[in-house]
């Protein structure tokens, strides 16, 4: 796949334009994310992806396109709490897109069905990109298996790094830092994976040892 040719719109942060597009599907992502995730999926070949925060659906659609073209038998399940008209077309592609809240009050726990989904055999990738990435990461990281990955968007190591290296250059939103997930990282035996690559597209990626 020639990723660069299929990016139909790039982010333009100086003009306050945060949308990128892949094959015409808009996403709230830096345009560098497509190559990073394509290479990641090709390398680890996950059995399933759990995405929190479908939103515009462009990134969800990209994940499905990438998995299909890589000939991966990857199940993709995406959750959002708001219904949008374009969700039916995403479902038609084979994405298990559900409009529901899987989290208990104050993000203490998640639905048992989601726990079972994560725990199935094979590598699970969990993507935290909903309304409160910190809560999502901290509760979902309890349930991933050894060899699974958990990731969060709108990430910067700390406020200083965000202001100096990211804002108005890569991304203009900072919703999760190392300090927010340090306890969960230790308690759940997580290690940071490919730090520089993912930070360049404002994601953190952590693997359960």
Describe this structure in words.
- There is one protein chain.
- With 209 residues, the chain is of the alpha/beta class.
- The chain has a single domain, classed as Vaccinia Virus protein VP39 (Rossmann fold, 3-Layer(aba) Sandwich).
- Helix content is 35%, strand content 21%.
- The protein contains 9 helices and 10 strands.
- A 7-stranded mixed beta sheet has the order 6-5-4-7-8-10-9, sandwiched between helices. It has a 3-stranded antiparallel beta sheet with strand order 1-2-3.
- Helix 4 links the parallel strand 5 and strand 6.
- The mean pLDDT is 97.
Q: What characterizes the major β-sheet?
A: 7 strands, mixed
**Proportion of β residues?**
15-25%
Query: Order of helices and strands, N to C?
Result: HEEEHEHEHEHEHEHHEHE
In order across it, which strands form the biggest sheet?
A: 6-5-4-7-8-10-9
CATH architecture group name: 3-Layer(aba) Sandwich
- Count of DSSP H/I helices: 9
Layout of helices and strands:
Blueprint: H1 3-6, E1 7-9, E2 20-22, E3 25-27, H2 33-44, E4 48-52, H3 58-69, E5 75-80, H4 87-92, E6 96-99, H5 112-119, E7 124-128, H6 133-140, E8 149-153, H7 159-166, H8 178-187, E9 190-192, H9 195-199, E10 203-208
Parallel strand pairs: 4-5, 4-7, 5-6, 7-8
Antiparallel strand pairs: 1-2, 2-3, 8-10, 9-10
Kindly list the characteristics that best describe this protein:
single chain, Rossmann fold, 3-stranded antiparallel β-sheet, 9 helices, 35% helix
Question: What's the quick description here?
Answer:
By secondary structure, the protein is of the alpha/beta class. 35% of the residues lie in helices and 21% in strands.
């Amino acid at each position: 796949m020639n990723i660069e040719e299929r990016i139909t719109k790039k982010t333009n942060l100086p003009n306050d334009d945060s949308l990128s597009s892949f094959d015409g599907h808009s996403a709230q992502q830096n345009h560098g994310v497509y190559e990073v995730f394509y290479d990641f999926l090709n390398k680890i070949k996950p059995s399933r992806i759990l995405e929190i925060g479908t939103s515009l659906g462009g990134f969800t659609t990209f994940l499905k396109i990438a998995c299909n073209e890589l000939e991966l038998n990857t199940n993709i399940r995406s959750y959002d709490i708001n219904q949008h008209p374009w969700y039916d077309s995403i479902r038609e592609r084979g994405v298990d897109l559900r409009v529901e809240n899987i989290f208990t009050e104050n993000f203490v726990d998640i639905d048992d069905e989601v726990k079972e989904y994560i725990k199935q055999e094979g590598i699970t990738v969990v993507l935290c990109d909903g309304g409160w990435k910190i809560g999502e990461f901290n509760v979902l990281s309890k349930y991933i298996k050894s060899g699974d990955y958990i990731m969060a968007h709108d990430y910067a190591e700390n406020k200083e790094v965000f202001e100096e290296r990211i804002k108005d250059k890569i991304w203009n939103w900072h919703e999760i830092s190392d300090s927010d997930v340090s306890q969960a990282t230790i308690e759940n035996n997580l290690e940071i994976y490919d730090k520089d690559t993912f930070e360049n597209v404002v994601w953190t990626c952590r693997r359960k040892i």
